[in-house]
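Colleagues,

For the teaching module next term, I've prepared a clean inverse folding example: a structure given as tokens, and then the sequence designed for it. I'd like students to try predicting residues themselves before seeing the answer, so please don't circulate the second half yet.
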């Protein structure tokens, strides 16, 4: 019993103390039975767990708590020793069954009130002075705090274990979802989803994130979004990405993060959405897409289509833009920008000049040079398509400007 300054309990004569503890210890078995009976009457929903011998664990816990408390009073130690791991098990059980600690703490308080009532009677029988009994009451509440602390610790352990298990199962589900060519039966997918309480959606979008800091906490994306923070670049699976308000919620939740969210696809094609998101993140890392936010691939389709097949586009560019090889870098760039504006506007010199911010006469001069360099190829629909494709890609890469 923790004591500060003068202690009325320590002043109790040893004989009275001996009588009190002997009677209290004799009362422990019967008092424990009475307390459990009253608890069950007040809380009929309380589930009793039996030990190997068939005795209720709650009864064992009450008995040990009463016995330990009385013995600690008799030793007159400054600090009680809480060696009642069974109360940690009680807390762990509440956590594993998804209940809160509120009802458990209420049961503890009821037990303390009933125990205090009987200990007060014993104190009167052996003439323990009232000031000493007041200290005994304080010690009882201190003892209760110790039992609650044990239960809270057990509850936290159970919660952490369950959270860890859920994350493990969630990662397994995501691995199955994101496999590019999945051969597993659909009932396995449904079973894994059910184990983490995830309703299988018709469509998903897959995101790839870049950490703002090494120890960054998981973003609050919401319960329905599967999130794997174990990967070097965290991944997430967003169900029903086109649902009302979903995109705006993700933008807010991912504030401070960067990365990309792939296009919506049927659930079976989740791997394809992941591939587009990874491609977008790759472009972000090369400075070809904005890197300070989480992008939606559907808003950057042109860049993803034109910048991804690099080797093919580079080869096509060498062939299509070969006539510019002898024009010099600056003049060649101006001719390329003029050609792109001409192909995009499908207009004459005035429209192209307005696009480029130059004089129409300058555009006419450049267009004559373009016809001299490419000849009839600029009138062929297939060649025009290839040229526009290549020039758009170069603009996205920053090779071309607007004038």
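(Answer key — instructors only)
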């Amino acid at each position: 019993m923790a004591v500060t300054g003068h202690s009325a309990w320590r002043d109790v004569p040893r004989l009275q103390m001996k009588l009190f503890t002997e009677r209290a210890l004799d009362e422990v078995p019967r008092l424990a039975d009475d307390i459990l009976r009253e608890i069950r009457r007040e809380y009929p929903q309380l589930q009793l767990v039996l030990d190997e011998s068939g005795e209720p664990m709650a009864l064992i816990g009450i008995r040990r708590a009463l016995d330990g408390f009385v013995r600690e009073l008799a030793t007159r130690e400054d600090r009680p020793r809480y060696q009642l791991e069974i109360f940690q098990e009680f807390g762990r059980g509440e956590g594993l069954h998804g209940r809160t600690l509120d009802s458990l703490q209420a049961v503890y308080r009821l037990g303390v009130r009933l125990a205090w009532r009987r200990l007060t009677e014993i104190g009167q029988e052996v003439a323990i002075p009232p000031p000493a009994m007041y200290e005994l009451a304080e010690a009882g509440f201190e003892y209760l705090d110790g039992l609650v602390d044990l239960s809270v610790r057990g509850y936290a352990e159970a919660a952490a274990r369950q959270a860890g298990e859920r994350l493990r199962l969630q990662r397994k589900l995501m691995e199955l979802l994101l496999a590019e060519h999945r051969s597993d039966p659909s009932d396995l997918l449904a079973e894994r989803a059910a184990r983490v309480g995830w309703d299988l959606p018709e469509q998903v979008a897959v995101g790839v994130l870049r950490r703002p800091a090494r120890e960054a906490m998981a973003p609050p994306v919401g319960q329905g979004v599967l999130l794997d923070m174990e990967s070097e670049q965290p991944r997430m699976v967003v169900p029903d990405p086109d649902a009302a308000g979903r995109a705006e919620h993700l933008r807010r939740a991912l504030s401070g993060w960067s990365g990309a969210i792939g296009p919506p696809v049927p659930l079976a094609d989740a791997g394809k959405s992941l591939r587009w998101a990874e491609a977008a993140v790759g472009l972000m890392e090369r400075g070809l897409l904005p890197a300070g936010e989480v992008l939606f691939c559907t808003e950057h389709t042109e860049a993803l289509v034109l910048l991804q097949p690099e080797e093919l586009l580079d080869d096509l560019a060498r062939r299509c833009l070969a006539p510019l090889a002898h024009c010099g870098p600056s003049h060649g760039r101006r001719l390329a920008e003029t050609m792109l504006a001409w192909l995009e506007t499908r207009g004459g010199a005035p429209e192209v000049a307005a696009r480029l911010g130059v004089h129409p006469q300058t555009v006419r001069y450049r267009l004559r040079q373009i016809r001299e360099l490419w000849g009839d190829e600029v009138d062929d629909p297939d060649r025009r398509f290839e040229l526009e494709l290549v020039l758009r890609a170069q603009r996205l890469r920053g090779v071309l400007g607007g004038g």
